[in-house]
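G., the chain you wanted modeled:
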Amino acid sequence: MVIVLVQIVCQMKHKVFVWSLIIALGGFLFGFDTAVISGAEKSIQQYWLLSSFQHGFTVSIALIGTVIGSLFGGIPADKLGRKNTLYLIAILFLLSPLGTSTSTNWYLFLLFRFIGGLGVGASSVTAPIYISEISPSEKRGRLVALFQFNVVFGIVISYLSNFAIGQFGGGHSWRLMLGIEAVPAAIFLLLLRLIPESPRWLIIKKGDTKKAKAILEIINPATADAVVARIEQHADDESKIIHKDPLFSRRYRFPVMLAMLFALFNQASGINAIIYYAPRIFEMTGLGAGSSLLSTVGIGVVNFSFTLLAMNFIDKVGRRTLMLIGSVGLIITLALVSNSFYTAHFSRWGVTVYLLLYIAFFAFSQGAVIWVFISEIFPNQVRAKGQTLGSTTHWVMAALIAFSFPLITEKAGGGNTFLFFTVMMCLQLLFVWKVMPETKGTSLEQVEQSLTEQ
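Predicted structure as tokens:
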């Protein structure tokens, strides 16, 4: 985090990057909060002597909060503004680790995990919207992908933190695993004062063109007047339609379909099941507890590295190309994992290698593209509602899969479970090939014209 502060001091001439980086700290907390439970879930189960149902509920309660946070996160983003909503999200991120790490009552623990989930869900709506609305079109993919980059950075840091604390933390190490998140949450809360409000929100929701123009002049003085004119024109055109054509109308049916299917396939790949239950999956293949925790660190490092790689390609080759490459890779790697469980042929590191390759393909495609793509495909007037729809679909699927994964693997076996994920990625490949449009290098208003039915 000291590095972040230094960057803010040294790169103030690149203010859009600095603003995006600050917002992306919300992504770091998103990733950390999502993955940290993987190192603590067994200890929590033993501490409160939880049944299988209670254990699954404890792991998935944050995802239930995430669903609710994503479902309602667009409301304050529209009513209060993107910046004020981010303040609320930062407070939720701070309360959650402080509460979970000190809870002596299971129900109180559930409450604070739920609060953390609210923060994750709301941030998955508000942060990508904010970054997409302040970014120049030629850099938008990379800057929005910075949010996902910090999500996976948060995941890898949580894995490293869990591994270190697990080695040296003692009998109640799970409390420190969860509580340490309060440090970056407090830094995020403090740094939010350095960002401005979204200029598109100021024009469309508040009619404050003067303040919006001042922000756009900081972003790019040469294009500020043209961007203001384009936003106002599309706002006028859209306002004539929006009252009679709500989000679920013929006009927006194509972006709605894109957002829902994209989010559904993201979780039908099994990514959150693997992130949440990585140590358990590795132990199913015969690895010891120490090796399993170390393997999760490998997952985090690969996720981080290939998300960084994708950021360098997303604005060059486009979102669709990354998705085509990733879909093929996910099909192959998931099929190999499924076959390993079917044949019970577990070499010492075979499934570990397959899953590391799986993570690489996921990070290079779905992981890097999802929040960029969904934040681009809806008009300014309904962007928060559209992002809410995509994010809620994503988290509903994540909650269902995380809750059911232990039971399904117990009843159906690892082979059938990973076969299901493989089949879903075959369907994703067809979706990307036949349906998904390319959005790189075009303004948000131009994307709106191409995807809505006039």
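The two ends are 47 Å apart (CA to CA).

Shout if anything looks off.
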